[in-house]
Amino acid sequence: MPTPTTLSRRRLVQASAACALGVALPAKYATAQGAEFTYKYGNNLPPGHPLNVRTREMAEKIKAETSGRVDIQVFPASQLGSDTDMLSQLRAGGIEFMTLSGLILATLVPQAAVSGIGFAFTDYSDVWKAMDGDLGAYIRGQIAKSNLVAMDRIFDNGFRQMTSAARQINAAEDLKGFKMRVPVSPLWTSMFKAFDAAPVGINASELYTALQTKVVDGQENALTGIMALKMYEVQKYCAVTNHMWDGFWFLSNRRAWERLPANLREIVAKHVNAAAMAERADLAAQAETTQKELAAKGMVFNAPKADAFRGKLRSGGFYAEWKAKLGDEAWTVLERYAGKLG
């Protein structure tokens, strides 16, 4: 009767012979030998954010369906560096995957900002028609020119809303002279300048103090961000303006992507896109719950009409400026979904 040692040696010889002949190994051998492709994926969101919950599930499903050949390691909360750092690493091949806001990706691919144009979309129905349709395809084509690969389905980063400590924001005129904190970005700055506001670029880590000490009068953020940053402690009013939508592109280094055999690329893309769809649903449900929680904490909500804001951006030259920056092709595709902007 064979001993356990004999059996172990026999399995090792069988596995070695299979490898030499190019025969696919059973999952138990692939796992024992380690992954054939170990890829790092980084993002800037907390571990508990729906994006990280879903991408961890995604990584597990990819590993299972590829019999352990592809192991995607998830690094949340900027563990691999800032967005700028990770983008540099991604382009150089230091990491293989990352998720990145289109508005930040625009530093490399200017047309990626087109989906964040102010008051382009009124609701998620418009967003997903555009981003799962021609607008998303156009942006992915522009991204490809930078030797990056973007998956077909973009993750949600939410509509942004405006908050204020002193008064409700009901119309564009209420923003005149208003000291509005914005992320350090030309798109945000030019939009609020068109409203005759006084935009101030401040990093998120300094935002709470800036509001507390009245350096700025208000800020704008997705509802989940308003809750996470405890804006309700220093801001009384929230105008549900949906003035800007943003999403996270799941990006890959092209060389790393093409190293994967076609059948493995198909499996990875399938699960990434499925994770994006699940995260969208998670975030939509969370946003509804979050508004109720913020109201319970004393925040007062109102819902201004977008038309007046759009009109002010048009007359203030915002749309003309960004049409010139992004080009006629990008603008034409955007207006196919957003309607005539400027």
Describe this structure in words.
This protein has 342 residues and is of the alpha/beta class. The chain is 49% helix and 18% strand. The chain has a single domain, classed as 3-Layer(aba) Sandwich (D-Maltodextrin-Binding Protein, domain 2), CATH 3.40.190. It is built from 15 helices and 10 strands. Strands 1, 2, 3, 4, 5, 6, 7, 8, 9 and 10 form a 10-stranded mixed sheet that branches. Strand 1 (37-42), helix 3 and strand 2 form a beta-alpha-beta unit. Helix 6 (124-131) packs across helix 15 (328-338). The protein is globular, with a radius of gyration of 23 Å.
Give a brief outline of the structure:
Helices cover 49% and strands 18% of the residues. With 342 residues, it is an alpha/beta fold.
Q: In the CATH scheme, what's the topology name?
A: D-Maltodextrin-Binding Protein, domain 2
Tally the helices. Answer: 15
Radius of gyration: 23 Å
Shape: globular
The biggest beta sheet reads:
10 strands, mixed
Uncertain stretches of 5 or more adjacent residues: 1-32
Query: What is the CATH domain class?
Result: Alpha Beta
What is the strand tally? 10
Number of domains: 1
Portion in strands: 15-25%
Helix content: 40-55%
Distance between the termini: 84 Å
Keywords:
342 residues; alpha/beta; D-Maltodextrin-Binding Protein, domain 2; ten-stranded mixed beta sheet; 15 helices; 18% strand; globular; disordered N terminus
Write the layout of secondary structure elements.
Layout: H1 4-21, H2 27-33, E1 37-42, H3 50-65, E2 70-75, H4 83-92, E3 97-101, H5 102-105, H6 124-131, H7 134-144, E4 148-150, E5 155-164, E6 179-182, H8 186-194, E7 198-201, H9 207-212, E8 218-221, H10 223-228, E9 237-253, H11 254-259, H12 262-296, E10 300-302, H13 306-315, H14 318-326, H15 328-338
Parallel strand pairs: 1-2, 1-3, 6-7, 6-8, 9-10
Antiparallel strand pairs: 3-9, 4-9, 5-8, 5-9
